[in-house]
Design a protein that fits this description.
Chain lengths: 204, 219
């Protein structure tokens, strides 16, 4: 994260996405600077989740491309994957594994310490509980704990606060603030108010 | 390497938490093998003639059972997205899953082989070769099946499509596997057949994960 503030490092150029015969969105030009947060707004089906998946590299755009520091990210998809954390609307939790084991698996993939990440989301007391015992909000917190594992430049969040109580939203706010203070970027799709002061809005 | 071991380790841990899945495949294997004596009659010579082919075919059918959930479960809970974003090459993810399938399904089937062999009246001197042949044949199936499961992921009725796709590709493994066991039963040399089976596994080892990886990325 050596970039000086004010320079757009993540950009989308004329991005389009098709689902079957139907254009979900087209001509999307998004620019994000270090420390910036962008809220994706739009009605249901406007393509917020699809845009996040395209940004993550999970979905190929029908047209246009994504640039990181001016270079097309398709030149090195593995490097792009390493610099981002993607939180989909699914929690990617294995019900048979304990909370700690679930997070330890992701820690092995992306690096980072499990215990502080559990602490950051208030999950330490539940660490030995199997995933199937968790409530919807607790599952979401476990998914969010992946963000606290290790720093990454881009966070792509799809409805991050879904099912969270007020205290957990506050914890997420702390995580987001620390991430942006490090120069991290956030692109989030949501219908709920997010603790992202000064976030830009992008309407799809 | 760490990520590869993490994927493999999670496969093994999940299998240990759900031992019924591996047990189901073993019981399916034994039941299919037990159907042959009912079908062809209990005459010992007929059975031992039939035993090599019946053993390999029932083991491969049983090994197919857990395959249709291999990627389906990962895709449904969102884990697949994160695996693909882990920076681990998709072919290595597929290799880890194939290794996990072989260790959790293939290995129990090999251990159960003597029981099925006894039911089919296979001469005891061929049991060792039978286990070795099934080890290699199930390895081939784990690799082919991983690619097949990746290709049929998201397809409607993928569970039916998968065997239709994988079993024809597994025919060489059935031929050489059964021939090796038969050779061992008649005190002929089983080595060439086992080597051919090993060659199949060596061929599938790099190709099938690459195919699976390409299919996953295209999803």
């Amino acid at each position: 994260m050596a970039n000086s503030r004010g320079v757009c490092v993540l950009e989308t150029i004329d991005l389009a996405c098709w689902r079957g015969e139907r254009a979900v969105f087209a001509g999307v030009g998004l620019a994000v600077k270090p420390g910036d947060a962008v809220l994706l707004l739009g009605r249901n089906g406007a393509g917020k989740s699809s845009l996040l998946r395209v940004l993550a590299g999970l979905l190929a755009p029908a047209a246009g491309h994504i640039a990181w520091q001016g270079r097309d990210v398709r030149e090195d998809p593995a490097a792009h994957a390493r610099r981002l954390r993607y939180l989909g609307h699914l929690d990617a939790l294995k019900p048979a594994l304990t909370v700690r084991e679930n997070l330890a698996f992701h820690a092995a993939l992306t690096g980072g310490e499990v215990a502080p990440a559990l602490e950051a989301l208030g999950l330490s007391a539940l660490a030995e509980l199997p995933g199937r015992m968790l409530s919807a909000g607790q599952r979401r917190r476990l998914a969010l704990a992946r963000l606290a594992l290790s720093p990454a430049e881009i966070w792509l969040l799809d409805e991050p606060t879904l099912g969270l109580d007020a205290a957990s939203v506050e914890r997420l706010g702390d995580l987001l603030a620390a991430h942006r203070a490090r120069g991290g970027m956030v692109v989030a799709a949501t219908h709920l108010p997010l603790p992202l002061p000064g976030a830009g809005e992008f309407r799809l | 390497m760490r990520a590869f071991l993490a994927v493999l380790g999670r496969e093994l841990r999940l299998a240990l938490r759900h031992p019924a899945d591996a047990l189901a495949a073993v019981l399916f294997f034994l039941l299919v093998a037990a159907l042959f004596p009912f079908g062809v009659g209990p005459a010992p010579e007929t059975l031992s003639r039939l035993a090599p082919g019946a053993l390999v075919a029932s083991a491969l059918l049983a090994a197919l059972l857990p395959l249709d959930r291999m990627w389906g479960a990962e895709a449904e809970d969102g884990s697949l997205d994160l695996l693909l974003l882990s920076g681990l090459h998709p072919a290595l993810i597929a290799l880890a899953k194939a290794a996990g399938h072989w260790l959790t399904t293939g290995l129990p089937l090999i251990l159960a082989t003597p029981i099925a062999a006894a039911m089919l009246n296979l001469p005891t001197e061929a049991w060792g070769v039978a286990m070795l042949a099934l080890a290699l044949a199930s390895l081939v199936l784990s690799l082919l099946g991983t690619a097949g499961a990746a290709l049929t992921l998201g397809a409607r009725r993928g569970g039916v499509l998968l065997p239709l796709l994988v079993l024809p590709l597994a025919i060489p493994a059935v031929i050489f596997g059964a021939a090796a066991i038969e050779a061992a039963g008649t005190e002929a040399n089983a080595r060439p057949m086992l080597l051919l089976l090993g060659a199949l596994a060596a061929l599938a080892l790099p190709l099938a994960p690459l195919a699976a990886g390409a299919a996953l990325r295209g999803e």
